[in-house]
Structures are given as structure tokens and as C-alpha cells.
Amino acid sequence: MTTAAAAETAPKPEPREAKKGGEPAxxxxxxxxxxxxxxxxxxxxxxxVAFLWLSPTVGLLLSSFRDPSDIATSGWWKVFGDPGQLTTxxxxxxxxxxxxxxxxxxxxxxxxxxTVLVVVLxxxxxxxxxxxxxxxxxxxxxxxxxxxxxxxxxxLIPVASLYRDLNLFHTITGVVLFHTxxxxxxAVFLLRNFFAEIPRELLxxxxxxxxxxxxxxxxxxxxxxxxxxxxxxxxxFLWVWNDMLVALVFADPGKPPLTVAVxxxxxxFDSNIELIASGAFISMxxxxxxxxxxxxxxxxxxxxxAVK
Length: 308
Description:
The protein is mainly alpha-helical and 308 residues long. The chain is built from 17 helices and no strands. The protein is globular, with a radius of gyration of 28 Å. The longest helix has 29 residues.
């Protein structure tokens, strides 16, 4: 018998998708979800959800370019029928308002240090919990994670009493320290889980080459943890920038951050209505710019560890 004939008469293997009994293999749940998610109906539904989600932002943007009399008498969607309502007078009034524009530097002085401190201290603590052995490490980590459930409102009165004794009440330093303290538990939890996924062989190779712990942290761990650190930075930046409760309690009323300054304009709603929409949009646009600028790193950090 020739080789070709033997190959023809040899039993052919069953296809992978077929079971031993000849029945086709059942489609996995993940495959079915992926197939349904790619359908036109699902895409149309997602477009509708995105439109509904963005409509308040679009409405705020259009309202910020409308005259106060138009805002008081009609909805923002009237702009599409009468584009002549759009004007830049509201932003001229906003940029000329010292109370609102003076709050912008205060917001930056609060947000940037709070973000940097949380990222630096959280990264160091996360590395220690992930790769350094010390007594009670796991219990201390559990205690840090347990602080995630502590609401901010619980700490307002005790911290206010402490700040009064330390002369930190109504200071930027006090607000920064409060945001840093409440941002660290989440930072340690997020970064520790990410750092723990770094291959041990890579760290051992660096140690063999003579790298100490600090050099190992800054030269190996920090570059590999870039996506998670970027995601943490965005989370912390957005939380501090948009905060109003902590700022109302601990910030200087004479130099409040932007959220408080815009809120204070509502006390004179009849006369300052043109400042509220434009000020609120300015307060929102900067975090949006930061988010979209680091969107790729944010997604990479959130998805880190989700797939092998």
C-alpha cells in the first residue's frame, strides 16, 4: 500500500469543536456575550445611553454661552432653533469676577500636592506590602484596606478639633493632609495588587546585579507600574478637584477652591446666574482634559491584571 493510500484510509481526527459523541460543543458564555455585544441593537442602545449621559454636559456648555434672560425663560435646547442666543458675555463676566477666578489657583494648590503625595506615599507603601517581609505585614495591610469603608463624614468633627489645636484650620495644608490621608488606603490597595503581579525573577535579577530596595523601586517597579499609577493619579485628581464638602469645612472661606466659589454664587442667584453655568463648566472642563489626556494609561491601569 502506498503512502498516499495509507493516508486516505487512516482515520481522520474529529474536529475540536465536536464532542466525542458527534454533538457540537456548546458555545461558551463569554463567546455568546461577545457575539451579542457586537450586534447592531446593542450598539444602538449604547449610543442612546451615551447621548443621555452626555446631555447634561452639553446642556451646561450651551447654557454657559446664553444670556441670563434666555436661561431664565427657556431651556438650553432652544439654542438649536435660535443660535443667535449664544454669546460670550457670560465668560467675560466670569473672567472679570475675582471671587471665582481667584479660586482657581487655590484649587490647583490643593489638588496637585494631594495627588502627588498620595501617589508617592501609596507607591512606597504598596511596594513594602507586596515585596518586603516584616512582622504583621498581612494584618497591617488588612487594616489599611479596612479604612476604605470609613466615610469622610465620620472624620470631619475629630479632624476639625485636631486642626484647631494644630492651627491647621482654614489652611491649604490642612485640606491637602485630609485628602492625602483619605486617598492613601485606596492607593495602597490598588498599587499593592498591581505590584504583586510583577515577576519575582525580574526583581531577583535586579538584586543580583546589586540593586538596593530604593533603586529597585525607582528603576524597576515604578516604570512597570506606570499604568496603575496613572489610573490612581486620575482617580485622586478628579476626587480632590471636584470635592466640595472637605473644602467647605477646612478651606479658608476668604480663599475657597473653585467648587466652593461657584456654590457661593448661588446665594445671589438672581444677579449672578450668568456666572454659575460658565463657572461650573470651567470647573468641569479641566478634569475632563486631564482624563482624556491620560485615557490610554487609565484604561491600561484599570484593566491591569484582568487578563493573563
